[in-house]
Amino acid sequence: MLPLSYDSILDRALAEDLSSGDVTTEACILQTAQAVAHAVARGPIVVCGGEVFARVFAKVDGAVRFEAHCEDGARASLGTRVWTVRGPARSILMGERTALNLVQRMCGIATTTRTYVDAVAEGKRTRITDTRKTMPGLRILDRYAVRVGGGKNHRDNLGSAVLIKDNHVVAAGGVREAVSRARAHAPHTSKIECEIDSLDQLEEAITAGADILLLDNMKTDVVKEAVARARGRVFLEASGGITLERVRELSLAGVDAISVGALTHSVVAADLGLDFET
């Protein structure tokens, strides 16, 4: 990620925490005090967000120095020192919470994503993708974390790809009508993806010109039948209530992608702390 793409996120987060200063730090810590602090994994994680962590402290005080011990994407075990910051103690304390809030979420997403990617059946090329169910305002960080965890990104926003959902189908008057209109009006560079929830809609969507079919909340046996009927004519994506336990069976069923909202919409923050050297 280029800093330009996420700097505004860090600025807002720091302003939220420091707009009135830090009365505790200013009262307790001498202005001349120096410190060394280590970001330590409190449990197994996939490391993510080193540049974000470093940039938070740099924005608080350019005198804070950053050192990475683990690259993004590396697995870190309990007790691993992931990153180190050195510099004015006041500045490190002022940036601590903001930096941790952001990277704990990023590491949590990367760790969860890696778990889903690892669950794909051996030898299958099914990709695990995210959805737009990201934290408002943090999408660029969430999507980066998915990539670090080995997943792929779905469409970035409503303007980046054509995805006809169930309500589009209803409002347009049916699958054929929705896909045909999209094919007629979308840029020639855009693929057309259409959500279907039954096998009856599969051939209708393909005939109308869909390039990708989103198999919504289909049981595995139905997904297998959809794969057989599609015969490689379209890219098939399984979605809707995907659990970790279903990833293997869906990949064995032959889908090209599995999109998982849980990668970002309900992620558990990774247990990562900042420990000052004594």
**Main beta sheet, described?**
6 strands, parallel
* Stretches with pLDDT under 50, minimum 5 residues: none
Broad CATH class of the largest domain:
Alpha Beta
Determine Rg (CA atoms, Å): 23 Å
Helix fraction?
A: 40-55%
Query: By CATH's scheme, which homologous superfamily of the largest domain applies?
Result: Aldolase class I
The secondary-structure element order is HHEEHEEEHEHEHHEHEHEHEE
Q: How many beta-strand runs? A: 12
Contiguous helical run count:
10
Given the C-alpha coordinates, what overall shape results? elongated
**Separation, N- and C-terminal Cα atoms:** 34 Å
In brief:
With 278 residues, the protein is an alpha/beta fold. It contains ten helices and twelve strands.
Descriptive account of the structure:
This protein is of the alpha/beta class and 278 residues long. The chain has 2 domains: 3-117 and 267-276, Quinolinate phosphoribosyl transferase, N-terminal domain (Aldehyde Oxidoreductase, domain 3), CATH 3.90.1170.20; 120-263, TIM Barrel (Alpha-Beta Barrel). It is built from 10 helices and 12 strands. Strands 6-11-10-9-8-7 form a 6-stranded parallel sheet. Strand 10, helix 10 and strand 11 (257-259) form a beta-alpha-beta unit. Helix 1 (3-18) packs across helix 4 and helix 9 (220-230) runs parallel beside helix 10 (244-253). The longest helix has 31 residues, at 89-119. The two termini are 34 Å apart.
